[in-house]
Design brief:
The chain has 149 residues and is mainly α. It has one domain (25-139): Up-down Bundle (Substrate Binding Domain Of Dnak, Chain:A, Domain 2). The chain has five helices and no strands. It has helices spanning 3-11, 25-47, 55-77, 82-101, 108-140. α2 packs antiparallel against α3 and α3 runs antiparallel to α4. The longest helix has 33 residues, at 108-140. It is elongated, with a radius of gyration of 23 Å.
Length: 149
């Protein structure tokens, strides 16, 4: 073999100058915040000492945490879209609705549950709204990097 073929074999194929488009930091930041909210929904049951007599809040927050964590992980690994934003917003709305229609009773323990579900649901809706408002700007802006000419 000639020297040119051997040097190509050692270096690999020539670089074409094309790179994967970088994802905007704000997308990753919102996805990380959503992931943190999902983790909070999972551990708040123990940190806030939910009473064991109320099983519905345990199920509601565990289910919501699974949905939020899986959606946030998908947003971190794939391009985000309106479906993930709607899913997060619907989960937040579900938490707020469950806080008032869950039939938890009226005492100090259930007040903690209501406040946590309302606050967590509001934060999820806020994150989904921010992500939705940033979506058109992300899609219309060109990806950073060298241009083909």
């Amino acid at each position: 073999m000639n020297d040119k073929a051997l040097s190509h074999r050692r270096r690999g194929p020539p670089d074409t100058g094309r790179h994967a488009p970088a994802r905007p930091f704000r997308d990753q930041l919102l996805s990380l915040l959503m992931l943190l909210m999902g983790v909070w929904l999972f551990i708040c049951i123990w940190l806030l000492s939910y009473p064991n007599t109320y099983r519905v809040p345990h199920l509601v927050e565990t289910g919501a945490s699974i949905v939020v964590i899986l959606t946030a992980l998908a947003r971190l690994t794939r391009p985000r879209g309106r479906v993930s934003d709607l899913l997060i917003a619907a989960t937040g709305a579900g938490l707020i609705i469950a806080a008032f229609l869950g039939g938890y009773g009226d005492n100090s323990a259930t007040d903690v549950i209501r406040v946590n579900q309302t606050a967590s649901g509001s934060v999820l809706i806020l994150l989904a709204t921010a992500s939705t408002l940033l979506l058109p700007r992300s899609r219309s802006s060109p990806a950073p990097g060298p241009t083909d000419g």
